[in-house]
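TASK: fixed-backbone design
INPUT:
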């Protein structure tokens, strides 16, 4: 079970050991899972930035940024809007109505389902 404590301060994550990780955009949500912290950035409507899910370790090293999703970047504004654990897997939903299962070790999308 992941019990590492961390705090979010706008664009920063302050880790239990005192390390700080800063992102370019505000942090919307974090989730401790699979020995890492999954980070969802809050992207404004006027910014085209669709790879807004990251994983960091408990020392503050960025492990991965979610892999580019096939064809969805051509649509334009379609960032991820939530992260959660479902059946012991990391899933993320995006603005365009897709649910993605993400490999928590690599950030690669293993499954994509249209939900709307």
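OUTPUT:
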């Amino acid at each position: 079970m992941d019990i590492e404590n961390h705090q979010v301060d706008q664009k920063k994550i302050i880790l239990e050991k005192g390390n700080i990780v800063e992102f370019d955009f505000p942090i919307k949500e974090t989730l401790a899972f699979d020995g890492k912290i999954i980070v969802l950035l809050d992207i404004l409507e006027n910014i085209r930035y669709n790879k807004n899910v990251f994983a960091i370790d408990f020392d503050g090293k960025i492990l991965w940024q979610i892999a580019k999703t096939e064809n969805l970047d051509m649509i334009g504004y379609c960032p991820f809007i939530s992260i959660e654990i479902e059946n012991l897997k990391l899933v993320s939903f995006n603005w365009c109505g897709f649910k993605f299962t993400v490999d928590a070790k690599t950030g690669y999308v293993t499954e994509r389902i249209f939900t709307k």
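COMMENT: The mean pLDDT is 92.
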